[in-house]
Structure formats: C-alpha cells, structure tokens
Specification:
The protein has ten helices and 18 strands. The longest helix has 24 residues. It has an eight-stranded mixed beta sheet with strand order 4-6-5-3-7-8-9-10, covered by helices on one side. Strands 12-14-13-11-16-17-18-15 form an eight-stranded mixed beta sheet, sandwiched between helices. It has a two-stranded antiparallel sheet with strand order 1-2. The protein is of the alpha+beta class and about 400 residues long. A hairpin with a 2-residue loop joins strand 8 and strand 9. About 30% of the residues lie in helices and about 25% in strands. The two termini are about 25 Å apart.
C-alpha cells in the first residue's frame, strides 16, 4: 500500500534514535521492513474505522513473548503486561473491535511476529500498561517503588486521529505518519534558539513578571504547551492567536471579535502566586499542586473555547480577547520557511499553498501584524507555529509537539 521508501525511512529513524542506557531492551533492530510495513498498514486502515460513529484510538507494541521474558524477567525491570488467555490475529477487524476497551495514553497491545505456531500471522498476545507521561501541572513528586512503568525501548505505533499515526521508542516520539507521508521528529521548537526566542522577544513587554526571570518564563512555556496539547487532544482542530496588549489597538482592524468576556480567568495571577511558594515542606508541596491543578483547569477552559469555529485570541498573559474570531488581514506576499530548531535544522521553504483557509488566514494575520504569534492545530495532529521574522520572511514550525509523545 505504502511506498517501500517510507517504510524504510520509518525503520531507519527508529534505529537511529539514541537509546537510553537505562532501557532494558536491546537497541538492535528486532524487526524487518516487512514487519514495519504490516504494522503501519494495519494500523493505518484500522485508524479509519469507527465504533458507534466514533473513530477508534489504539497503540501497538512489537514484542515477542520470548523477548519480553528475557528483557523483563528481572523483578527490578518488570513491565506490567497482562497476557490474553488466547492470542488473536492482528487484523483491522479484530483491532477495531477490541480497541475501545483500552486507552492508548497508558495501554498498548503487544504484537508478536509470525512463528511456526502462529502459521505466519501476527498475533496480539497481551496488553502492556505504563504510566502516562506527566506534564508540569500534574506531576506528583514521589511514588511507590516498583510501580512506575515506563514505555520500553520497543517499536510502538499509536493512532490518535483517523489516518494519523505516531511512531515512538520509549518516551520519545520518532515521527508522525500523516497523509501518507512520514514526518521525522525534530526537537521541541520552544527552545530559546528556536521559536522560544521569538516568543520571548515579542511578548516580554506585556508579560511583565511572566517574563521577568527564568522560572516564570518556564511556567509560561509549560502553560502554552499544555494549552496546545489540550486543544490537540480534543481532535477538533483550532487556531490560537497571541497578541501583546500594547499592540492590540494597532491590530484590531485585522480581526473581527465574535464572543468577548468582560472578566478574566486570572491565569497569570495564579502562576505568579504559585511561584511564591518556596517552602519544601509537605504542606507547601500540596499547596503548589493545588495551584497547578487550578491553572491546568483554566487552561482546559481556554482549550475548549478553541473548538468554536474561528480563532481564539489571547493576550500574552492568557487573557481572553475573543474566541470565534474571524481573521481578515491582507494576503501575505512574503516567503514562508521552516523555523530554526536550534540544531542546524530549518530554513527550508515551507509550502503553505496546499493548506486550508484556517492556516492561510493565520499566515496573513501574522504577516501583517509583526508582533503576533499564531498556532494552528490540525485535526490530523500537527500543531503549526507561526511568527514573522522580517518584512519579507515568516517562520513556520511544522509541528510544535512533534518531539513529544502524545
């Protein structure tokens, strides 16, 4: 179904990814191109299926019983794998029927390669359970020893939206398979030498204490990342436009506000208050966790607003300027390049002509309003970030979460 070159690219990218020395599974390739081709094609076709009119989501881990026993036999290195009493073939139909019972954020079907006993068919023989990756706002310090299960160093493929697959190794995303193309993972664009530097320079005047020191700036980036991931998780797509307060009067002519609140969710205030707690005591830790939960809940409110058709327009302090807004800036006539990633990547021409109205209206706005920052979350997964470099050049980061497991 798919070009052999794509399958080989997926395989090469997985093998080339650096291996954590703490991992328990050999980094040597345990699969062939034929294995990857079967897994990708089956996962792709299954991702297009629906159960009760809802797309299914699932995750597959490629691991034989023998290899699992060898890698996880030590009690200190165990994985939580539940073995089915009777294995069943990995097919589109079988996967679509059982997938609704498992959440891919912390469960993956374990698939064994063909053997003489399985009569040359791939079989699902168990379900591997692991801890969800914590984010800044829900990470709880400590934990019961022996009950923390990481994603192991094995080939994993996850379907989160129809036709869109994530390939990963452990906690690292290798790349994303979208619209028949494999997009290799790149470092997070929020590094200072990538998009992070542009963000800081454009909002530092208005963010005030939010950008005053490293700790507050770090929480701002965590908050932005959490907001984008929450919008992406809802799988409906959306647009987020950040406009510095001091630029708002100049930019108002280029968007039409639809829904406006008089009040403020006070997210910046909560962030600043949470950072004043420096006591290492248990009570202080609980207080910080309480603040983090409140901040996360309010960011989730913002994420839901992005479900309305139109753009969610925010200030640099997460104040809601409008949601459901229409962007109407004149057409951007400059060039669009991939933004730098801080690792000598970027600066390739980004072809935005084939993208839809949502993307191009954001490109037009950011091109006209130089201090604005735009994000477009696609229904098929990628989150594109946009900033204007100069009068003739705009930078686009093709996926602002491509280096992180979702």
């Amino acid at each position: 179904m798919f070009d052999k070159a794509i399958i080989q690219k997926i395989m090469d990218s997985w093998i080339a990814d650096p291996v954590d020395s703490k991992e328990t599974v050999s980094p040597a390739s345990p699969f062939s191109p034929e294995d990857i081709e079967f897994l990708v094609e089956t996962a792709f076709l299954a991702s297009l299926k629906k159960e009760e009119d809802h797309p299914i989501t699932f995750s597959l881990v490629f691991l034989s019983k023998r290899r699992a026993a060898r890698a996880f036999g030590d009690p200190d290195r165990k994985q939580l794998i539940m073995t089915f009493e009777q294995s069943f073939p990995l097919t589109v139909d079988s996967l679509s029927k059982v997938a609704p019972a498992f959440d891919p954020r912390f469960t993956s079907f374990v698939v064994a390669p063909p053997t003489d006993e399985s009569k040359k068919r791939y079989e699902i023989w168990g379900a591997m359970f692991f801890n969800t990756l914590p984010n800044y706002f829900d990470d709880i310090p400590g934990g019961r020893s022996g009950e923390v299960f990481r994603r192991p160093n094995v080939f994993m493929i996850t379907s989160v939206t129809p036709g869109s697959l994530i390939v990963s190794k452990g906690d690292t995303q290798i790349g994303r398979f979208v619209a028949g193309k494999f997009i290799k993972a790149t470092p997070s664009p929020f590094y200072a030498k990538a998009m992070g530097g542009f963000l800081y320079n454009k909002i530092k005047r208005d963010a005030g204490s939010m950008a005053k020191d490293r700790s507050t700036w770090k929480v701002f980036i965590h908050s932005l990342d959490y907001l984008l991931s929450e919008i992406s998780y809802r799988s409906h797509g959306g647009s987020v436009l950040i406009i510095p307060e001091h630029r708002l009067p100049l930019y108002r002519d280029h968007f039409t506000a639809k829904y406006i609140f008089r009040e403020n969710l006070k997210i910046q205030e909560l962030i600043c208050e949470s950072l004043t707690i420096e006591d290492p005591s248990v009570d202080a830790v609980m207080q910080r966790l309480s603040y983090n939960r409140k901040i996360a809940e309010r960011l989730q409110v913002l994420a839901q607003l992005a479900a309305v058709d139109g753009a969610l327009v925010l200030s640099a302090t997460f104040r809601i300027i409008s949601f459901g807004a229409t962007l109407n800036a004149p057409r951007w006539k400059g060039k669009v390049f991939e933004g730098p990633d801080g690792y000598n990547g970027g600066d390739r021409v980004f072809d935005h002509q084939l993208l839809g109205t949502r993307h191009n209206s954001m490109i037009d706005f950011v091109g006209k309003c130089s201090d604005s920052i735009g994000f477009v979350i696609s229904q098929d997964g990628p989150i594109r970030g946009l900033v204007r470099k100069n009068m003739k050049t705009m930078y686009c980061w093709p996926d602002c979460r491509v280096s992180m497991f979702i």
